[in-house]
């Protein structure tokens, strides 16, 4: 603020006192298809892509929420997610702005104890975060910190059962799951009070079409059949900046290929099973690295972060291995328990200790970097 001149401050103060109809006329009135924001994908699989989101795209999400969830000017949002990610921009900024709600902001969602204090002190009613952030808040929170929270939604990654159960036990709060991508502004589907099925990411939001296609044939699949998740509606981006090839590869006839695997059950609930690129073929059989990760996370101590990746195997095509933040646990005991729930080809063949497991700003583990580190470790052993 020290660099702001007195003249600029006076001008801002005068403008703030103008009637709404005058302020409205001062704002740029462009076409709804004009680009509102250019945001980058996480880059967890390859180089980040620049996603062009129009006003139409973002408004699709913003307008959908009030039709599903009762939110108004009396709500207080914990607007803690970075706005350079679409989850933070749409859900933590534009949504509360358009309904006139209050926003509690804090520069770092990673300061878990401080965020919990503010949630309690400012009587937050709505919080959206990644599962990793919710886990941090669970660890650092005290009973009563989330007493005023009516709606808690996790997105950007799968919510571990122990986090879901932890909030129920400690705060009597159901953490709901949602699903989306940067390219869909972001929300595709979400659970919400009165419309919730454990394990699912909810039903598609209003005016959104979702279909499941066979991975190999692109045939439309029926209920409870796993396949590629495709999405259609005004939430789908305008395209990647300066990349017609990738845009046309991802969007065909209005349908956006998310690159994710999932299914829709007989009640219309969507279940997200993971990224297609996080499935690996071992001895001719498809293995979900995300599923192995989920089982492993449930068995590991609470303070141990893990990431399951694949490494080349000249005979079987690939081996499943696990990277862990520390080795302070009984690996043999963990493997014995895993064998009860998973087929032998899905059991990690090796554990690699990486003290500082790479994380992205979104709170996700950067599995691309973890995979590189593990493969480098294997190569060094060979050398």
Quick structural summary:
The protein is an alpha/beta fold.
List keywords for this structure.
383 residues, alpha/beta, Rossmann fold, GMP Synthetase, Chain A, domain 3, 7-stranded mixed β-sheet, 5-stranded antiparallel β-sheet, 11 helices, 20 strands, 25% strand
Kindly describe this structure.
With 383 residues, this protein is α/β, with parallel strands linked by helices. The chain has two domains: 16-273, Rossmann fold; 283-382, ANL, C-terminal domain (GMP Synthetase, Chain A, domain 3). Helix content is 32%, strand content 25%. It has eleven helices and 20 strands. A hairpin with a 2-residue loop joins β13 (251-252) and β14. It is globular and about 70 Å long. The mean pLDDT is 92.
Q: Mind telling me the CATH superfamily name of the largest domain?
A: ANL, N-terminal domain
Put simply, the count of helices is 11
Into which percentage range does the β-strand content fall? 25-35%
Please identify the structural class as seen in this structure.
alpha/beta
Query: Helix content range of the residues, please?
Result: 25-40%
Number of domains: 2
Strand tally, please? 20
Helices and strands in order:
Layout: H1 6-16, H2 20-26, E1 35-40, E2 50-54, H3 55-68, E3 76-79, H4 86-99, E4 102-105, H5 112-121, E5 126-129, H6 131-140, E6 151-154, H7 161-171, E7 175-180, E8 187-190, E9 203-204, E10 209-213, E11 227-232, E12 239-240, H8 244-250, E13 251-252, E14 255-264, E15 270-275, E16 279-282, E17 285-288, H9 289-299, E18 306-313, E19 317-324, H10 331-341, E20 351-353, H11 367-382
Parallel strand pairs: 3-4, 3-5, 5-6, 6-7, 19-20
Antiparallel strand pairs: 1-2, 2-12, 7-8, 8-9, 10-11, 11-14, 13-14, 14-15, 16-17, 18-19
Helix pairs in contact: 3-4, 5-6, 6-7
């Amino acid at each position: 603020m020290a660099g702001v001149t007195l003249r600029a401050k006076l001008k801002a103060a005068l403008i703030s006192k103008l009637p709404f109809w005058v302020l409205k006329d001062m704002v740029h009135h462009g076409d709804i298809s004009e680009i509102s924001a250019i945001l980058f994908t996480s880059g967890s699989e390859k180089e980040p892509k620049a996603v062009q989101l129009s006003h139409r795209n973002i408004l699709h999400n913003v307008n959908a929420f009030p039709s599903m969830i009762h939110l108004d000017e009396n709500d207080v949002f914990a607007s803690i997610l970075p706005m350079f990610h679409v989850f933070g921009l749409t859900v933590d900024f534009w949504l509360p702005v358009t309904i006139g709600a209050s926003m509690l902001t804090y520069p770092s969602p990673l300061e878990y104890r401080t965020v919990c204090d503010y949630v309690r002190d400012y009587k937050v009613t709505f919080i959206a975060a990644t599962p990793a952030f919710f886990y941090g808040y669970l660890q650092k929170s005290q009973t009563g910190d989330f007493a005023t929270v009516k709606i808690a939604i996790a997105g950007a990654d799968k919510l571990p059962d122990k986090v879901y159960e932890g909030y129920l036990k400690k705060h009597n709060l159901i953490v709901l799951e949602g699903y989306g991508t940067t390219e869909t502004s972001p929300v595709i589907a979400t659970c919400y009070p009165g419309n919730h099925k454990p394990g699912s990411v909810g039903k598609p939001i209003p005016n959104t079409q979702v279909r499941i296609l066979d991975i190999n044939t692109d045939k439309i699949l029926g209920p409870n059949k796993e396949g590629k998740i495709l999405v259609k509606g005004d939430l789908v981006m305008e395209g990647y900046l300066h990349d017609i090839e990738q845009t046309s590869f991802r969007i065909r006839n209005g349908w956006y290929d998310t690159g994710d695997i999932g299914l829709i059950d007989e009640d219309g609930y969507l279940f997200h099973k993971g990224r297609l690129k996080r499935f690996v073929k071992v001895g001719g059989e498809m293995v979900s690295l995300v599923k192995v990760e989920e089982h492993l996370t449930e068995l590991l101590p609470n303070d141990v972060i893990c990431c399951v990746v694949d490494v080349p195997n000249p005979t079987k095509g690939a081996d499943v291995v696990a990277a862990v933040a520390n080795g302070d646990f009984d690996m043999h005991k963990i493997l014995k328990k895993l064998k009860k729930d998973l087929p032998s080809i899905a059991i990690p063949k090796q554990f690699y200790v990486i003290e500082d497991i790479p994380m992205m700003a979104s709170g996700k583990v950067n599995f691309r970097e973890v995979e590189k580190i593990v493969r480098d470790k294997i190569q060094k052993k060979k050398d």
